[in-house]
Design goal:
The protein has 17 helices and 31 strands. It is α+β, with helices and mostly antiparallel strands. β18 and β19 (364-369) form a beta hairpin. α1 (19-26) crosses α12 (444-454) and α2 (42-60) packs antiparallel against α6 (165-185). The chain is elongated.
Length: 604
């Protein structure tokens, strides 16, 4: 350590809501260069490389072939896919010296599809799985929690290329299982949840979530049957609407009743008898469109569901002037009589008769409004957010919520990109068909950030042996020329020859300072060589996580430490297999044929 670049810190600079990130800073593993942009010091870079090694092993185990695609890409690729205008300012756009439009890739679907177009010609060329570990840039407006949400990052992204939907399903299931092995070996507990396809497009997606209070995603879980979904797409068992005949619509005065609570009190009704109008502008690429979304008064709009129903890249609230421009009135608005906006109605509202709604007149509402008779929506679908206590859509039991950080995702893209780019192949019957694609991503730095959040205490990090920068911290309690220095150097050399990764603290500092740094860096085992223990013919071993210490004879020290490291590695890599969720369980899955130890965490 006398030559190690990077210092441990008594206190972390700045602040972060992630205690794990604070410990990464204190351990001398990362440093912030700019908002959402970090440097990895040698200790941190070793952990990153170990995570990448696990990723490479697990991708190879599902027939992945590593390649590399450029970060800087011609913008015509993104224009061809349609994402150039659908993605906002997060996509970095620039012009090269010749004035040609370029982007810094935040994902590589366009580039890999272009490769598939040139390299895949026949069904005999399929299936294929390719992957890369590549730097990406996403100009996130709100970086947070250290490595958990950044702007520049390294990502493992894999892409499957298949002949048909059955082949895509097999590779999707293989990746699903491989992801649990990756996270299991890295010591990060995850839940796989159904999720929104978002800007990626396609027909199915799952996110792998590390449950933590600092997560920004809300997950809906059923402890009874195992249903799991991100709130973005979570559904629930909606109540049965009342069975009553439609009554004539009537206007009535409701002064100073611009909110649902005020209207319910003024009209003497429950909020579930109110049709709440939410006015938004939908980003449809090169233009915006005004939209009135209607949900029940006791429920909240789910913007992800609404955006997906509209095919919108994003939504923003309408201003009072924009609401007035379509003939509605803020606080007293509804679709009744409005023709200058698209109308999307939640399916429960559409099925519920005789609701209260705005009259589009200041200080007035309407009684007994009925969808279909009093206004005609463009779309009727589920657009409300599931909440804790709502009924599970599968079994009816009460759902609960938890927070989580997305550490990985998988998508069934189908022909979303291949059809647009002309990435086709000649099938056995002579017909040209689009390649069926899937994509599968894991953020490497985010995974380290989540591991640090999951494995730390008030003294420092306690990273798993599989991704800790070294396996053993060797503390030498004696300066150069001392008996302890000679014994420590001999042990260091013997362990190195046995393949054990050792961080040797040869600085000659006092024991308390060395032990404090050892706790901060948090390597799984600490071996201490000092004059007192040597006088007894021993060294001391210490387990960082359990706090247990025990003496080991000097003559057996190298063998004992090597065995302890090997045992811990074996246990950390022995992750049990995972079951597929119901939506994937009926798919045939190719058996794993080799590679790193199988592993998993709890699945649905």
């Amino acid at each position: 350590m006398s030559g190690l670049f990077g210092a441990t810190l008594h206190t972390a600079p700045g602040s972060s809501e992630s205690a794990g990130h604070q410990q990464l800073l204190r351990a001398g593993m990362v440093r912030q260069l700019a908002q959402g942009i970090f440097s990895y010091l040698p200790l941190g870079w070793r952990s990153i490389r170990k995570i990448e090694h696990i990723l490479r092993e697990e991708m190879a185990a599902v027939a992945g072939q590593e390649l590399s695609m450029p970060v800087a890409q011609p913008d015509e690729l993104w224009r061809t896919s349609g994402r150039y205008h659908k993605v906002g300012a997060e996509l970095a756009r620039f012009a090269d010296r010749r004035g040609r439009g370029m982007v810094l890739a935040m994902t590589h679907e366009e580039a890999v599809t272009e490769l598939a177009r040139s390299e895949i010609d026949s069904y005999r060329d399929l299936p294929r799985m390719v992957f890369q570990l590549q730097t990406k840039f996403r100009d996130d407006p709100r970086p947070r929690a250290g490595l958990i949400r950044v702007r520049e990052f390294v990502m493992k992204d894999a892409y499957s290329l298949d002949r048909d939907a059955a082949g895509l399903a097999r590779q999707y299931a293989n990746q699903y299982r491989a992801y649990f092995r990756v996270f299991g070996r890295c010591g990060v507990p995850v839940l796989a949840v159904a999720s929104d396809v978002g800007m990626m497009g396609g027909e199915l997606a799952h996110e792998f979530m590390y449950p933590t209070p600092i997560g920004e995603d809300t997950l809906l879980l059923c402890d009874s049957c195992g249903y799991r979904a991100n709130r973005q797409v979570a559904t629930f068992a909606k109540p049965t609407p009342p069975d009553e005949a439609a009554r004539p619509m009537r206007r009535f005065a409701t002064p100073q009743a611009a909110s649902v609570a005020q209207l319910a009190a003024a009209a003497g009704v429950r909020p579930d008898r109110i049709a709440k109008a939410v006015f938004v502008q939908a980003d449809l690429g090169e233009a915006e469109a005004p939209v009135i979304a209607v949900v029940r008064g006791d429920m909240d709009l789910n913007e992800s569901k609404l955006a997906a129903a509209l095919g919108a890249a994003g939504l923003r609230p309408m201003t009072a002037d924009e609401i007035a421009a379509i003939g509605a009135v803020a606080g007293y608005g509804s679709p009744v009589g409005v023709t200058a906006a698209r109308v999307v109605v939640d399916d429960l509202v559409a099925a519920t008769p005789n609701l209260l709604a705005g009259a589009n007149l200041d200080g007035y509402h309407l009684r007994d409004v009925n969808v279909g008779r009093d206004f005609t929506p463009e779309l009727v679908c589920d657009i409300v957010a599931a909440r804790a206590g709502d009924g599970c859509p599968d079994c009816g039991a009460a759902l609960r919520t938890t927070r989580g950080v997305e550490v990985g995702n998988i998508f069934k893209l189908g022909d979303r990109y291949s059809a647009v780019f002309g990435a086709t192949f000649t099938d056995a019957d002579g017909a040209r068909r689009p390649v069926q694609m899937g994509c599968y991503g894991i953020g490497v730095g985010r995974l380290l950030g989540c591991a640090a959040q999951a494995h730390h205490d008030d003294r420092g990090l306690t990273l798993p042996i599989t991704i800790a920068p070294y396996q053993v911290h060797l503390c030498q309690l004696g300066g150069a020329g001392s008996e302890a220095a000679a014994a420590a150097q001999a042990l260091y050399e013997r362990l190195g020859a046995a393949g054990v990764e050792v961080l040797h603290d040869d600085r000659g500092q006092r024991a308390g300072s060395q032990f404090a740094d050892a706790d901060l860096i948090g390597l799984p085992l600490r071996a201490t060589v000092g004059a007192r223990s040597l006088a007894r013919g021993e060294i001391e071993l210490h387990d960082r996580r359990t706090g247990e210490s025990w003496p080991v004879p000097v003559g057996a020290a190298a063998e004992t430490v090597t065995a302890a490291v090997s045992d811990r590695l074996s246990r950390a890599n022995a992750v049990p297999p995972v079951s597929l969720p119901p939506e994937l369980a009926d798919r045939p899955v190719t058996a794993r044929t080799g590679g790193a130890a199988a592993g998993s965490a709890a699945a649905r």
